[in-house]
Amino acid sequence: MIKKTSFLILIFSIVVLALSAVSAVESQNIENNTVAIGGVDFTIPDNFHENVTLRIENQTKNIGSVIYILDSRAYENEKNFMTIFVSNYNNLDGSKDIVNQIGGDTIQINSEKGFLHEGNQFYSFTFEKDGKIVALSSDNKDLFREFVI
Length: 149
Description:
Elements lengths: L3 H18 L6 E2 L3 E5 L2 E5 L4 E2 L5 E8 L2 E11 L4 E8 L6 H8 L2 E5 L2 E8 L2 E8 L2 E7 L5 H4 L2
Antiparallel strand pairs: 1-4, 2-3, 4-6, 5-6, 6-7, 7-11, 8-9, 9-10, 10-11
């Protein structure tokens, strides 16, 4: 079983990487539509564009002996950012258990029940979907409702 600390360190490392590069120049404009990230659908609001320099697709990662596939996208507008991570642990049955171990404040956002974490001007929402662990991070917790279907 994956230890909570190792998983939190992984998520934190990915989020720090995304936050440090969120101001990169290259971007792709998105009209209000639905995109699939790691097989999970999200709505991208009209005023957000993708920072394609931060895109991660189908990248194999590991925590100890556990191997998973990571997909990630970062979106921004003139005031806010949203980073979406989808981790596919393939044959690991404990995805829901991992999300529960991460914990936080239980919250329902649109169709997804998960956990909200609040930090210093930083928020994350984590949930399990179809055996995948989904984590969104933003500087505005109200934006989760606009992205999560």
